[in-house]
């Protein structure tokens, strides 16, 4: 008798027959199982049949995936994948239009299955699909099914994208470039090109040449949201695959075409809610654009470069224009050098005799010089006011413009993650980025004036420089966390958050911390913790019951495929399955796969997960490692792999799964939630003690009285 884990109880269906309920022995060859099933229905030639799931993606059962079958699964007896592949291979070549359409439709559906795809490709089926597209005789629904089937077959990576013929690629490109083409065909064509671009330099160049940025911008302006999304996906794929110089040229052209303003008005502020996929693409576009500053950020100033020296001199000349107008022959070389050094000192350079030395540090490198020059040229009045105002102060109280600009540029680079690779999953972008050209420079112009304002509010001296910059960093990060929709709104809010407001916020946080550090309060916290941790556990399990939409991510690109996972209301079974785009909360009955909680062995996170070990260990996958977790069930080799959409979801799911496994919740979110709940509960409990100092030691308990005669005896009163 095999152990229970090697036997699963399942149902097998067949059209026109009574279903069979069998105990599937996992150690028994699949061919023998099929023979028994066919014999029970008196079907000859068992080798012509196969089993597949009746629900969900209807995957074929093979020796490699049979261990995924769970108790209670419903399978269906169907034509074997090799037989079906042969039939459809013949069907798509039929002269009968209806037969060909039905065959292509079925092919598009079955091609998602890896076993069928392998069989169809082995019959040179892809060559037939190439022919259908290259000949261009089919259109409409038939062509859409063909392109869908091609996309699904290529997804399995059996065939290299580099094998595609030039004729085929140009045909796909023509569907993107033509106006009178069905939107579904254009979406599929854009998706095919998006997959093609990252695979080789040659294919990138072909697509970049054939599909112009103007054409992509036309699709971006379409009212069809899916077409808009696919066009954005291809644009991002092209930007990520381009060289630095090509990326710079593409971004310059897009700036000329006012793409930012269009995105700001028609996509971000559209009446339709912004989907996760589009939010990710906008994040990547923002990141790519900001990373164009990386080259200048990492480049130190070259004191022998005439161009860089001219930029440096322009700062001095703009600030002290009237003084610099004195004819060259009036002063000796030594006197002129001394005057220049004095003016550079007034500008706030540490090394006033050789200001280029201040810009040798990289980062921020030449990016700081670029920002200073931009500020002086685009807001000359504000620039002159900053410099001259500080020139008239005492030496120790003047705010050094150059030193502040260099440090501020570094702070902005760190806050905006300039120089860091794009995350594969992040969706956090700043709406105001798309509302303004020269965003980084304009942000600098606002913030450098904020530095001067904060310096005056703090009545700072040179020794306070680092303190001032810490306050400025806090002002910027607090304001950015509010996600202002425009730079004007950012400017208003960041200026409202003055030094006194920062002090109030810090004082509130400090007082709260001091309150919670008193010995009696700490004891009360410890007493409240178990009750509040139980509340957090219940919230985590409730979140798992509501479920979450996860995305499948391959090593090649961000996937469109979605799957949903949720916990049953009785907390005994995890249900999961693939879903279509747009499905928010599928009913639990529609999720075909399940894992009993009792079968869960352990939870793996980050680098321990099997699906992260398969991926390369580059910087671009750091964010995936932070969001990856796996459930090990049955025996160790079987895992359900997740990549959470956000860090918040990662924390809630890993906590919830740890609760189901009877372990402690370990995420940082648990501590945050516990602190918030403890803070609220403590404030409620201590409400009556406001303005009363809590002693560290409890008051002494008085001695018991010498006698207890003062107690009233109720028994005498009753008599």
Low-confidence stretches: none
Question: What does the average pLDDT come to?
Answer: 86
Question: Biggest sheet, open or closed, and with what strands and sense?
Answer: 4 strands, mixed
- Beta content comes to 5-15%
- Number of domains as seen in the coordinates: 4
SS summary, helix count: 31
* Arrangement of strands in the largest sheet: 2-1-4-3
Q: Helix content range of the residues, please? A: 40-55%
GO molecular function: SH3 domain binding
Organism: Nicator chloris
InterPro entries: ARM-like, ARM-type_fold, ELMO_ARM, ELMO_dom, ELMO_domain-containing, PH-like_dom_sf, PH_domain
Protein name: ELMO3 protein
Description:
The protein is α+β, with helices and mostly antiparallel strands. It has 4 domains: 7-79, Roll (Ubiquitin-like (UB roll)); 83-272, Alpha Horseshoe (Leucine-rich Repeat Variant), CATH 1.25.10; 298-320 and 335-509, no CATH class; 530-671, PH-domain like (Roll), CATH 2.30.29. The chain is 54% helix and 9% strand. The strands form 3 sheets. The chain has a 4-stranded mixed sheet with strand order 2-1-4-3. The model has no long low-confidence stretch (mean pLDDT 86).
